[in-house]
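Ligand: zinc ion. Inputs:
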Amino acid sequence: MVMLAHAPGSAQTADWKALEAEALKTLQAYIRIDTSNPPGDVTKAADLLASVLDREGIPVKRYESAPGRSILLARLEGSGSAKPILLLHHMDVVPADAARWKRDPFGGEIADGAIWGRGSMDMKGIGVSHLYAFIALKRQKVPLDRDILLMAVPDEEVGGGAGAVWMRNNHYADFEPEYILDEGGFGSRDLFVPGKLVFGISVAEKKILWIKLTAEGVAGHGSQPHDRNPNDRLIKALARLLGEPLPAMPFSVVDTFKTRVGTLVENKFNNAIQHSTISITSLRSGVGEPPKVNVIPSPPSRRHRLADDRAIRD
Ligand SMILES: [Zn+2]
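Predicted complex:
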């Protein structure tokens, strides 16, 4: 919301304290709506944002890409001399395991100087900052040379096909922005170079390559191990994969970044943006559910393989 402090032609000085309190209340209500994805229903979240905008007299356009996949687009009109700035956030969150949280992940409690809840960082907090920046522009009647748009989308946590991608494919003319402010580009004082404040601008995205490794072998009883156990083969194959560093490749975007910013501090984030990386995210094996501990598993059936392929695509 810093940009508002420098907004030209502000008709009045904002009461930032009051605005902050309003924003905090909305963020608590927003966090309390469980938009875990899967299943990813965001209807109530979109209703909440729409009700706040309605109260301000800001028109809202609603879309639905699929049942429960609500999309919201609001607009503050400018003179039209430039293309819009889009404030974009996603309403869905990744699921939270409440047993591993100190506080209710959907409680929106304020404690220890922080607000607690799934989505407070990613990215309902940013969404509410967008919302109240948007509202403050309207209340202060700031003259705009371009439209400012606020868009809230579903489905980001599972790829965005029914969210931002769907909007781009089906309704691009409704928002066609020059700039987007979203969660991709962020500022940090220590993440890249210690003590140096760096704001990132997203110019590319690291790509994902999903690979499924299936080990074939021969079933048997655990008491009589043999040399064709598919688990053994899988473990050896994964060890080889992890044991050899991936071939190094120059990334011109990262090289330019380092030239401008300096030597990057060693952490998992900087490692991931400079190299191709491997994460083993799931391992499945065994006969039965839960798997029998004394059986060397047989190769997966065709039916199971099809189900696995679907899971990977999802
Ligand atoms: Zn996010």
